[in-house]
Each structure stands twice: as structure tokens, then as C-alpha cells.
Design goal:
The structure is a homotetramer.
Chain A: E1 2-7, H1 11-22, E2 26-32, H2 36-45, E3 49-50, H3 54-59, E4 63-66, H4 73-82, E5 87-90, H5 97-107, E6 114-117, H6 124-134, E7 141-149, H7 156-160, H8 165-181, E8 185-193, E9 208-215, E10 220-226, E11 234-241, E12 244-248, E13 257-259, E14 266-267, H9 274-277, H10 279-294, H11 303-322, E15 326-327
Parallel strand pairs in A: 1-2, 1-4, 2-3, 4-5, 5-6, 7-10
Antiparallel strand pairs in A: 7-11, 8-9, 8-15, 9-10, 11-12, 13-14
Helix pairs in contact in A: 4-5, 5-11, 6-8, 8-11
């Protein structure tokens, strides 16, 4: 039974709390949030305690789950690592790659498992695409197309501190591409437009973007993003190679199809957002983390994966600003 | 080059005329219709002559296509057979099985090819289902489900002489079942309701029907019919057996799918009716008839197939009226 | 918090136990099974006690869930009703309609809620079909087609006491038809074949069946059943009416589609069986039962629904044996 | 009745010849090919004459269809325009934009209709996507994704004179993007890999490519290409905007779906290549050209469309070689 301290009691923190509470191998011991009433609410829902401080939270648990705001991640990772607590941390590690590098150095010798919350790797459908690719089912991979569109823009307050579309949203797609490819991306081109929210211009951000990347083997990757898909959270992957194609499609609440005089086979809107679409993925992610801790093995999605996805996000911004394909180095 | 006389210049006759005219191995020589202006119009469209009489039409051609009203079929078949002209005749042979038996006797020794126009056997998708079944792809056939719904009711004038739903509409499905099964049906249960047009009550007809049949092997067959599907002409077949299932689906004008906030993946209405859905089937049916004539072989869909489908239609009416499953005999 | 006694600790009992344990409004208090080790195992998994007798089990709980063998249902219902315990009982109530009638009389005045476990009513997709029909989305219902095929035959030992295909398997479809129609079925025709397991001949049972029913309004219903679908548990509903059609389709483990030189868009096999396909339905069923108890309202799926489905199953056997459509009376 | 001279009697010329011959408003008068036996064969198939020279071919017809090798297009366009013959010319106009500009100048004042054979504009499904976009069905267009993959590489002899992937293959997608967008593309990024045929390295060509383009409005366009899709000719379009999404999918020979123990709903391979997939488009293209000539209006797909698609193809090569997004100018 792994006793968890949860950092961050917002929407995603509350979801993780429920998953921990429902997991027979885990228990929610304590909750910490700078906004104490949020911590109290989540703690109360699952019979956990409210930790008065980070230090207190770290003192008496077996593992930590970090779901607080992005700017707190590296400090919490460092503190938890120094306390010897295995860490499951939401993405991204940090928006500033320098802070990520510094954190990497600080925790380097501590030998504490760190797993980054790239939930999509645990989606059964995306995972099946990856498994098919790795089994050689499509032959050498030649084209990978990732469609990734949010149902709606987050509030402007969040957008201001989000780091922009690439480290905030596309970062999941960068990681998913690496996961499926099984090799590194060496070149990134990205471009974007403001098509949803004009106020993003003040943030030098975009809400609609396209990325093309090249892997070491020459395989090409495309990602397209929008911050607003009215028909729901659109998450698809298409892997194409010498022997064929494997695609993962969206999920809907039902399998119902409706036919009328105007149209046939109309289906439900897509599941609304990540909480709904990746519900099972979050459960499986937690189980995989617990497995790693119990088996004393490295987590499947490590700190280095979080770092590399951020390097790709930075390269995407550099490309968007320069209009050039950017060569990527990870050392 | 097979020169055809066409009997009947209505909607379906005009379609056959166009197919004959476009076929490089056929020519439309003459058109006969009791309503002479109709014959003139179709003949003019394809540079054919108007035949002044049935005898004249039969005098100087290589083959006949009979697309006149149902009550004229047996007389025309008999006349054409006596004139030694190969015959492609629209279904049904006749509504009265006694007239069919009489016709059978009259043409018995004449050795003239007669093909009945069961167009659905030539639909590429239904045919692929049959081929899969006959190749053993689904293993021994256990369940066969045929969905067959018209877009709208024909005019009451036509309904009055149609013979009712089973010989007029379901007869196609009876034939398709025999085609796919590759064995004979031995038992028929049928029931119906009036759900579309109350005036059908005066004709002792129904517009909504369900049939269950048993084949000699024990395979079970279901047919469901409606005279009005607002989303288009609904024509599907599902063959299920020990090794799996093969299904044929409908066709649409495009492959487009539309997604909005209300629904996703909505497709076009189905192709409107038999002229659209079975356009290719009518072309292939004609080619197969020409092949049979040229190769001096029996047509693939013979007089006996037309007769047996009518026996099944009669059994369906008997069952609907008695509430009992009817044992079918073909001798 | 509703404390449950569970009767029956077999496969389906174990599943119900897990659902009760995971439900925040329920607790698994005790487990009873004539085979005590089974009860012990399930009880241990959820920290419940093993009840030494039925009476003991009924003594100290708020509700009972009956998942024991079919022949014990009416006695347990009667005992629990006399003890004043709300009851959620797996289908069927009993195989013998006389025993059902007797049970009905015995519990008539006791005013204890009894819910029958027709899980399919809670499947989100089938339920959406029913909701669409009841909202009038397809207009007056004209045709209802239910496809219901098990992945494989149960062991012969079970088959011997199953009551045969109609009360054992089709009973779910009878109930689903009533649920979607919102009106009573007045006529039943059924026929079957042995296509899967020849040994069923000794049981006078069949493994492949087709049913056609007529509702009071004239709406027609078709059910087709097989005891062996190699591609998975096939559960589909199609409701057709004056304004269109609504269909519920199967579920698969992923949304993946695979394309190779031989075939395109190939999807996963269907979810294996009821435990997988109706996992969510069982959870929702339990919640609806708890709602009914808490709100002191009648359960949505009552004893009378169980009784009527059995009357239809009996009518199906009568029809299969007589070859006649059977008029159904429920009084 | 428009009498055509056909230039080029290869595979695509033969197809156009058949379409002209089958069109009731057109006649194939003569065929010219530098390889005379090819001309003879096509002419014989449709009762046309073999033209001894270009001049002879132009002398006595109402229109010309140019389906000869790419390097002959501008000379034939110029000659036909000077002879006052309306022109339907296969894409591309020429591989060298200078030759295109020169041709443009030479035919500028002649006022002869020139239509470029961008067949995909006439595909009913792609066209429906465009119509939906232009009707505002998806709102302001934000993302356009074009998947375009050939079934197999052409022979190396052809590849050597093809101009490479962008003017040879992607040019169709450039035109389709312009057609759907209804506005001009202002920026092009392209990159490619050799994944299919290593020998392409000697031609400085690629066989696998990705393009990202930006339109004047900020709408983003992605194209992905492969020279080898083993499952058939893959041609899909996805238009996404503020109000939803419209997608066109591929076509198959049948609508059949197959389910076995290993997989469900497997469909046919895609139609093999452009001759099969765009069969109807070629017919409609010809009809639209005849309409334009008869109605004395400009063709819907003009010389300028051919020129702009080539400018985009050139920009794609420039981008692939420089690693930069290229700003596009059309003046």
C-alpha cells in the first residue's frame, strides 16, 4: 500500500486524488495546496489529512503526486527527491529549460524515481498504435500524423502563464510522437495563427498551429492543434509505413448512430476533454507508477522524457519566430 | 453485337434502353409499348425504331428485354420463346403461380435462354457477401439477415396491381436469400402491419413486414421490409456463421462526414432508390445475359429462380393470413 | 450507506460484490453461498463477513443482491421480502412461470422494492436508443431489430438447467424490446436450429434462433440469437420509424483501425462477453437500485418486468414447438 | 457536338478518349501521338482518325484534349490557342515556370478557353467538402489537412522527367487546397525523405513529404504524401473551422465489412489509383469543359490555376532545400 502526498488540489489534482483513493494499492495520506480550502475539500472527500507545509507533507509518505501549478514543479520535484520520495509529476516539468536542467543536476545522484504525467501514453488506443509500430506491423514508419484539438480555450489568466501553445498543449503531442517513433526527432518546423482568440496576440501566443518534424531515420511527423473544436476533444493518431497504416480514433459516450432524411449514421459528439477521454489512461498511469515503485524499476516515462518534450516545444517556438526548421540537440 | 427489342418504355424500360445503347456488345433495335408515345420517346433517344406490334418486334432481333407491366410478362416470354429469342425479363414472372406454371410448360421444350431481372445478385457488395459465404469464409451459414426498405410508397394505382408486399417487394429478398444460401428454403413465416399508408387496408396489403425462414440445413433467414425509409433506400445483408460475419452496407453519393457541436461523423442520406443504388448492377446484369447468349449457356438467374421466389412470396402471404409457419414445396 | 447481503458468490456474484464495494453509497456486509469457500473468497476480497445462513444474512442488512443459481431466486426473494429487505435479483426470476406467480402472490402486500437485473437497460448505447424512441426522434416505431449473440456456449451442465435459449438468453432481448417499445408485445413467433452444439438435441434446446413479435400498435420486432459469435459478444439494437433510425453498436477495447494490402479499417474484436460489455451497465444498475431505495420509489425494472419477459420466453418455446404465432396475455 | 482532337495516347489519353467517346455531347475526331501505333490503337477503339501532325490535328476540330508528356504541353497549348481551339490540358502546364510564363504571354490576347486537368476538384466527395466550406458550414476555415498517397512509385524512367514529387504529385494537392480555401496561400514550408526508393537520391527527389502552408487569412494547410501506400490510393481531405469539421474519405470497390475471431469490420482495400478513384471526376471534368465551351464562359479551372499550383510546387522545392518557409508571390 503506497501512501501518497498530493500537491495541488485543483481540477486535475482532485481527479488524481480520486484515482489514488480508488486504487487498492494506494492510499491518499495528505493533500497540500497553497490555497488551503482546496486542499481541505479534496482531503475531506477521501479521508486524508491536510498537510500544513511541503516539508510536513514529505515527512511521512511513500510517494508524491505533483499536480500543482507548473511553476512549482521543479522545486517540489527537488524537495521530494531529496526526501527520497518517488514522484509522479504532471507535465510540463517547467516552462524554462534552464530550470529543468538545474533540477536535473540537483536530483541526478539521488536515485529517486520520477515519472512525468504524459497521460496519452496510457490511452489504450494510442498505445495500441505504438505497439503495432514497435511490433513492425506497419513496417518502417514513414509518416506519423497527430491530430490534437482542445474543445475550448482556457481562461486568459491561465493562458498568460501557460508558456504558450507548444509547452502547454503540443508538449503532449511531442511526447506521444517520441513514444510511437521509438527514436529521436532531429528537426522541428512549426507555425501558428490566431484564429480563436485575438487577445492572444498580446501574449505572442497562437491558438492554431501546425508542426512538421523529422526523425533520425527520416520518418516525418505532423501535428496539428487547435484550441477550439466545437465537436469535442479531438485526439487521433495515424501511423503509416511500408506495410500499412494503424490509426487510433476518438471515443464517444455511446456507440449510437442516427439517420434521418437529412443525414445518416450521425454519432455523438466526442468526449468533452482530457478528464473524460483519458479517464482510463490516468488510472493506468497511476498503476504503472506504483508498479515501478514496487518493482524498484525506472518509471516508463521519466524526467528525461519531460525534458526532451520541452526541448521540442522550445524548438517549435524558435521555428515559429524564425520561419526556419530548427535542428534539435538534446545534450 | 446483340440487337434487342425492348418491351415496355416506362421508367425502368428507359433505364434498360440506355444500358443497352451504351453496351458495346448490344444495340437497341426496337421499342414496343402499348402506350406508343412512350415507345417513341425511348426509341428516339437511342436511334431505335418503334415496333408496331409484339410480332413485329420479335421478327428481326437477337434478344428481347421485357420491362413492361407484370401482367404481360408470361405472354411475352411465351411469344419470344416461341420466336426463339433469348429473354431478359424483369421480375416477377407473374403474380399468379398458375400462370407461371403454365408458361413453364409452354416454353419447356423450346430451349430458349430466359433470365429473370433479379438485379441485386449483381450488386458488387451483396455479391461479395455471397462469394464470401460460398468460399466458406464465414463457415457454415447460420443466420442471414436482410434489411430491405424502400424510400417511399409507390402510387396507390400501382399498389392495387402490385400483388402486395411479398411478390412485389420482398420477392427480391427471397431471391437474394436463395442466392446467398446456395440451398433451398423449406419453411416461411411472415407477418406484417400497416404503419405507413392506412389505405392499404382495403387492398389487404401491408407496408411493414418481417419474415423468418428456415433453410434445409437449418440456417435461419430474416427479412425486414418497410415501404418508407426517410433516409433513403436501405439495402443491407448480414451473413453470420461458425467462422464469422460478412456484411454489405449501403452506398451514398459521397464519402463525406460532418461534425458539429451536436453530432459527429454524419454522412449523406443513402442513394435514393433502386435506379441509383443498383445502377452498376443493372449494367452487370445485362452483360451477364449477353455472355450467356454468346456462350450459349444457361443464364445465371433462370426462369426457375423467378418461379421459386414467387412460391416463397405466396407462402409468405399464406403465413401472414394463417399465423403459421408454412412448409414450402417447389415441385 | 446501504449495507448489502450478497447471495451467490460465483462469477457474476463476485462482480456485483466488487461493484458494491466500490460504490460510495453501498457496503458489502455479508456473503452467502451454499458453497462456503466461494462465499469466503468473495467476502475476504472486500472485508465482508460470511453469512452462515440465509436467515442470518437477512437479519442485519439494508438490502440484498441475489446472484445465486436461478432455482433459488423465488425462495430468496420471498424470504428477503418477508424480512423487509429491498431486493436486486439477477434474471430470470424463475424458469417456471407458476413459481413466479406464486412468488408474486406471496410478496404482493409486503411493499418491498424488487428490482430485476436486466442489465442491458443500463447500457448507455441501448439506453440512448430507447431515449431517442421515447422522445419521438424516430417517429412512431415501426421496426425494432435486436442482434444478440454470445461469444460461446456455456458448459453443458449449465445448459441442462438453463431452461433453454429463450428464458436463459433471449429473455434479455424480450425485456430490452419492451423497454424500447414502451408498449406490450401481443404476438410471438420463434424458431430455432441446432447449428453449434449437436448435444443440445437431447435437451430439446436450440443454439441459433430467430424471433418475430408484434406490439399492440403493430410495431414489429425481430430478435436473432446465436450461442457462438467468434468475433465477440454481438449486441446491437436498431429502431426504425417514420422519421428515421437509431442504432446502437458494439464496443471494442480500442478505437484502432488497421489497413494493410489485404484489407482496410479492420477493428478489434468485440468486447468478449457481458462482464466486459456491460461493466458500466452493472454499475449504473446498482446506482439506480440504491436511488430507488433511498428515494423510496419503485425500482425502474420491477418484478412485473421479470414476469412478463418470462411469459414471452414461454410463448417463444410454445411457438417453436407448434410452428404458430402465439398470442400473449399477461393477466 | 464537340469534336475533339486528342494529343497523347498513353494510359491517361486512352481514358480521356473513352470518356469523350461515351459523352453524348462530344466526339473523338482524331488522335495524335508521336508514337503512331499508340495513336492508331486508341483511334481504332473509338472510330477516330489518326492525325499525321499536330497541325493536321488542329485543323478540323472544335476542341483539343492534351494528354501527352508534360514537356509538350506548352507548345501544344500555344499552337491550339493560336488555332482558336478550346483546350483541356492535363496537369502540369510545364515543369519550368519560365516556360509557363512565356506561354501565358503568348496566349494572353487570344481569348481561347484553357482548362487544366485538376481532376480532384471534380471528385464528388472533395467537392462536397469545398461546398461545405464555401457555404460557411464549418465557419471560418482554420485547418485543412490533405492526405495524398499513391499506391506505388512510377517507373524510374518516368521519375527522371517528373520534376520530382512537388510538381508531379503534390501539385494536385496544392490546387485542391486553393480550391477549398477560396483564397491564396502566402507561405510554404516543405520537407521530404527517401523512404521508398533509395535510387531517388540520384535525382535529388524524395518519395515521402510533408508540407505546411499558410493562407492570407492565417488558415493553415497540411499535406502529407507518400509514393507507396500498400492499402491503395489514399485520398482524404479534412476541413476544420470555428463551427466544426467536414471530411472526405476514400472509396472502395464494395461496402463489405468482414468480422472474424481476429478482427472486425475489415473493409476492402482502397480503389487502386487515380483511374479508378477519380473515374467519375474525369467524366465530370470533361462535362464542365464542354459546358464552358458551349456557354462561352471561362473554364472553372484555368491556366492561372495551373500556373499558381506550379509556383507553389517551386516554393516547396525551395523550402525543402533551404529549410525555410518560403513567402509566395504570384505576380
Amino acid at each position: 500500500m503506497l501512501r501518497f502526498a498530493l500537491f495541488g488540489a485543483g481540477r486535475i489534482g482532485a481527479m488524481h486524488a480520486a484515482n489514488i483513493a480508488a486504487n487498492p494499492r494506494a492510499a491518499l495520506h495528505s493533500v497540500y495546496d497553497v490555497h488551503r480550502p482546496a486542499a481541505e475539500k479534496v482531503a475531506a472527500a477521501h479521508g486524508a489529512t491536510v498537510a500544513p507545509s511541503v516539508a510536513a507533507a514529505l515527512a511521512d509518505v511513500d510517494a508524491v503526486l505533483i499536480a500543482s501549478s507548473t511553476d512549482t514543479h521543479v522545486d517540489l520535484i527537488t524537495a521530494a527527491a531529496k526526501a527520497g520520495r518517488p514522484i509522479l509529476c504532471e507535465k510540463p516539468i517547467h516552462l524554462d529549460i534552464q530550470r529543468v536542467e538545474q533540477c536535473r543536476r540537483e536530483i541526478a545522484g539521488l536515485n529517486v524515481p520520477v515519472q512525468i504525467g504524459f497521460n496519452r501514453r496510457y490511452d489504450p488506443s494510442h498505445r495500441a498504435v505504438r505497439d503495432a509500430v514497435h511490433r513492425g506491423e506497419v513496417g518502417p514508419l514513414e509518416l506519423l500524423v497527430i491530430t490534437s484539438r482542445d474543445p475550448s480555450l482556457a481562461p486568459m489568466e491561465y493562458m498568460k502563464v501557460s508558456g504558450g501553445i507548444y509547452p502547454d498543449m503540443t508538449i503532449h503531442d511531442f511526447d506521444l510522437a517520441r513514444f510511437i517513433l521509438g527514436e529521436e526527432l532531429v528537426e522541428v518546423y512549426a507555425t501558428g495563427s490566431i484564429r480563436v482568440e485575438p487577445a492572444l496576440a498580446q501574449l505572442n501566443d497562437v491558438d492554431t498551429a501546425m508542426v512538421v518534424m523529422k526523425a533520425a531515420s527520416g520518418a516525418l511527423v505532423h501535428i496539428n492543434n487547435s484550441r477550439r473544436a466545437v465537436y469535442g476533444y479531438d485526439q487521433r493518431v495515424e501511423a503509416f509505413g511500408a506495410k500499412g497504416m494503424v490509426q487510433s480514433d476518438n471515443r464517444r459516450a455511446t456507440t449510437v448512430r442516427r439517420s434521418t432524411a437529412e443525414r445518416t449514421d450521425a454519432r455523438d459528439p466526442l468526449l468533452h476533454f482530457f478528464i473524460e477521454r483519458y479517464a482510463q489512461a490516468y488510472v493506468d498511469e497511476l498503476n504503472d507508477f506504483i508498479d515501478a515503485v514496487e518493482q524498484k524499476r525506472a518509471p516508463a516515462v521519466g524526467f528525461e522524457d519531460g525534458r526532451r518534450a520541452l526541448i521540442l516545444a522550445d524548438a517549435a517556438w524558435e521555428s515559429t519566430r524564425s520561419g526556419r526548421a530548427v535542428q534539435v540537440r538534446y545534450d
